[in-house]
């Protein structure tokens, strides 16, 4: 089993060698910190709106090194945050506008990929959410009964389900490398191997020089805590994935997964999975949720106990795969604000802006964020700039060791709640409700 190496997705297409490292100081119109999908889609959208803009991206490793090239490949219509948090600032109508915008963005990403020749194994196959206990079924409020779930995918113990057609399977590394390609072709410079040290109005100081620009956009998502002055802004939450060896036709038949829909469950410590284009199951979950001091992983390597836990989840869903080989394991970090809700912001007075905090629903939201930042930077009042995540502000996370202790206690509570519900509780455990209040969700 290969553990790390950034991700299985990057190992499939080849881990890039960083190029165009910044040498000395530079000036431009817009400098973007972070070469993941948020930064790349922002650069794409800005250039599309105004091709005269001189745009540069600074990236510590290579474009797509972070969550953009490591995620579970769900181009999902899930809200990138708490409906309750957004409703507090925009009401129910604002939340519905946000849902519509995210849902429309699924099709927009697919359309851009098709138009620009990005081959990313994209299939608009939908997602099947399954409930495996009465409490999960209550939360899911799905339209599928146990028999209907089994006709789609034979998930052991499934009692109910819900199918959402507004979701697509994606190969993350192929998508982000494709977006990086088209951005470069338009003249945007991506300075890889160029780590930002600090961000201030008008300047980004890196290890190799300073880039000065009237507009500075921070698009670091789970790596935000590594930037000076931002340690407690967004918590870098870990998520890990394993990829099996390719399944045989008989194994696919045994589990009844004949289509290419994605698969998720309704547990508090939930899992997410896809059938890959080359016939594997890639399944992910939280694992060890957080490293002390907001540290991040090394080249995507995850803990052995996390691999064992994900294998256990896989075989719990599909007992017939008990002997399946695991070819790859990896992990990454996602940005989690204190209220678990993404935001996009720009201050015209300072020229500083940011986007992120997608809480694991970023593959779609990055494109929406990039278009929203475009409109904010250009000073346009649009439907996007009036979405409830625009200039949404939230308090910082607690200092250490409270942050580490709190996050680990939180996930112990979620797992305890799952255990009680699996044992027969017919409603959401009070333990989970307490955990949600502590989390600020």
Outline the structure in words.
The protein is of the alpha/beta class and 441 residues long. It has helices spanning 8-13, 37-49, 83-116, 134-140, 146-152, 172-185, 249-255, 304-317, 362-378, 402-422, 430-439, and strands at 2-3, 26-27, 30-33, 55-58, 74-76, 127-131, 144-145, 160-164, 167-169, 189-191, 196-200, 203-206, 209-212, 215-218, 235-244, 262-265, 272-275, 281-285, 326-336, 343-347, 352-356. It has two domains: 2-126 and 165-385, FAD/NAD(P)-binding domain, CATH 3.50.50.60; 401-439. It contains eleven helices and 21 strands. Helix 3 (83-116) crosses helix 9 (362-378) and helix 10 packs antiparallel against helix 11. InterPro entries: FAD-dep_OxRdtase, FAD/NAD-bd_sf. One of its GO terms (cellular component) is cytoplasm. This is FAD-dependent oxidoreductase.
Core attributes:
441 residues; alpha/beta; FAD/NAD(P)-binding domain; 2 domains; six-stranded mixed beta sheet; FAD-dep_OxRdtase; FAD-dependent oxidoreductase; FAD/NAD-bd_sf
Span from first to last CA?
A: 36 Å
* Overall average pLDDT: 96
Can you say what the CATH homologous superfamily of the largest domain is? FAD/NAD(P)-binding domain
Looking at the structure, the CATH topology of the largest domain is FAD/NAD(P)-binding domain
CA-atom Rg in angstroms: 21 Å
**Net shape:** globular
What ranges have pLDDT less than 50 throughout 5 or more consecutive residues? none
Residues in helices, as a percent range: 25-40%
User: Main β-sheet: number of strands, strand sense, barrel status?
Assistant: 9 strands, mixed
Placed side by side, the strands forming the largest sheet appear as 1-19-15-18-17-16-6-8-7
Protein name: FAD-dependent oxidoreductase
Domain FAD dependent oxidoreductase: 29-376
């Amino acid at each position: 089993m290969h553990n790390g190496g950034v991700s299985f997705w990057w190992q499939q297409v080849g881990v890039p060698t960083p190029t165009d490292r910044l040498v000395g100081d530079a000036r431009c119109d817009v400098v973007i910190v972070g070469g993941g999908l948020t930064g790349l889609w922002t650069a794409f959208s800005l250039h599309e709106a105004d091709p005269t803009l001189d745009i540069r991206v600074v990236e510590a490793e290579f474009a797509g090194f972070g969550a953009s090239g490591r995620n579970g490949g769900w181009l999902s219509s899930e809200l990138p945050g708490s409906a309750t948090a957004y409703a507090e600032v925009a009401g129910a109508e604002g939340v519905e506008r946000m849902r519509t915008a995210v849902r429309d963005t699924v099709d927009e990403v697919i359309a851009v990929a098709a138009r620009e020749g990005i081959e990313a194994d994209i299939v608009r196959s939908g997602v099947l959410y399954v409930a495996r206990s009465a409490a999960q079924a209550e939360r899911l409020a799905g339209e599928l009964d146990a028999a209907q779930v089994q006709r789609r995918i034979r998930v052991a113990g499934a009692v109910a389900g819900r199918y959402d057609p507004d979701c697509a399977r994606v190969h993350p590394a192929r998508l982000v490398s494709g977006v990086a390609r088209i951005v470069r072709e338009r003249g945007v410079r991506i300075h890889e191997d160029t780590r930002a040290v600090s961000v201030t109005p008008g300047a980004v100081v890196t290890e190799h020089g300073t880039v000065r620009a009237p507009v500075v956009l921070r698009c670091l998502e789970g790596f935000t805590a590594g930037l000076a002055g931002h340690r407690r802004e967004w918590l870098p939450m870990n998520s890990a994935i394993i990829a099996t060896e390719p399944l045989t036709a008989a194994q696919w038949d045994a589990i009844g997964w004949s289509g290419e829909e994605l698969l998720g469950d309704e547990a508090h410590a939930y899992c997410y999975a896809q059938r890959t284009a080359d016939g594997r199951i890639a399944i992910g979950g939280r694992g060890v949720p957080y490293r002390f001091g907001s540290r991040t992983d090394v080249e995507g390597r995850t803990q052995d106990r996390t691999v064992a836990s994900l294998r256990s989840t896989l075989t719990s869903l599909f007992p017939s795969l008990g002997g399946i080989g695991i070819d790859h394991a990896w992990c990454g970090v996602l940005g989690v604000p204190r209220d678990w809700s993404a935001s996009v912001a720009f201050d015209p007075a300072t020229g500083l802006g940011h986007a992120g905090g997608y809480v694991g629903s970023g593959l779609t939201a990055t494109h929406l964020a990039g278009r929203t930042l475009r409109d904010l930077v250009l000073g346009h009042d649009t439907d996007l700039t009036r979405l409830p995540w625009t200039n949404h502000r939230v308090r910082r996370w607690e200092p250490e060791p409270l942050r580490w202790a709190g996050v680990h206690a939180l996930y112990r509570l979620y797992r305890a709640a799952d255990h009680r519900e699996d044992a027969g509780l017919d409603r959401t455990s009070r333990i989970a409700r307490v955990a949600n209040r502590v989390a600020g969700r």
